Amino acid sequence: MFVCHGNICRSPMAEFIMKKLIRERLPGEDILVCSSATSTEEIGNPVYPPARAELNRHGISCGGKYAVQLKKADYDIYDLFIVMDGNNLRNIKRIFPDDPQNKIHKLLEFAGRPGDVEDPWYTRDFKKAYDDILEGCTGLVEHIAEKNL
Fold first, then answer.
1. Residue ranges of the domains in the chain?
2. DSSP 50-77
3. Given its phi and psi angles, is residue 64 left (phi above 0), alpha (psi -120 to 50 degrees) or beta?
4. Is 96 in a helix, a strand, or coil?
5. Which residues are catalytic?
6. Fold that domain 2-140 belongs to in CATH
7. 127-141: per-residue pLDDT in tens?
8. Distance (Å, rounded) from C-alpha 3 to C-alpha 31?
9. pTM, 2 dp
10. How large is the average pLDDT for residues 91-99?
11. By the 8 A CB rule, do 128 and 120 touch?
């Protein structure tokens, strides 16, 4: 489960990038990939047009995706919760006060570097967000592949 503030930019970009990488690199694996928001303000809205356009530039469709909110019950359903930045990390801890199974991680941890995927809603740099998300998702696919070997 990829998580960002509104579930209209970074987390859906990560969801659909990850789905593509899994199809390409782990064909036949049954891996559920979703995304959600820590806030409520965008619930029900589609992927933000500039984020959708950036995905389309890379041949990735996100049609049919609408923002949903992360729920406390999700902790028992998903193996990992991948947040985009420190604010998301703080917000997810309000929903999941405890993380006994160490499921919560920042995306760029899987790229082997600290830091945040900056919010393109504010930076307007959807290409940089895409590149950072791709780097993190690539590392996450490798992590999953190693665990499944």
1. 2-140
2. HHHHHHHHTT---TT-B--B--GGGGGT
3. left
4. coil
5. 4, 10, 119
6. Rossmann fold (3.40.50)
7. 999 999 999 999 999
8. 17
9. 0.96
10. 96
11. yes
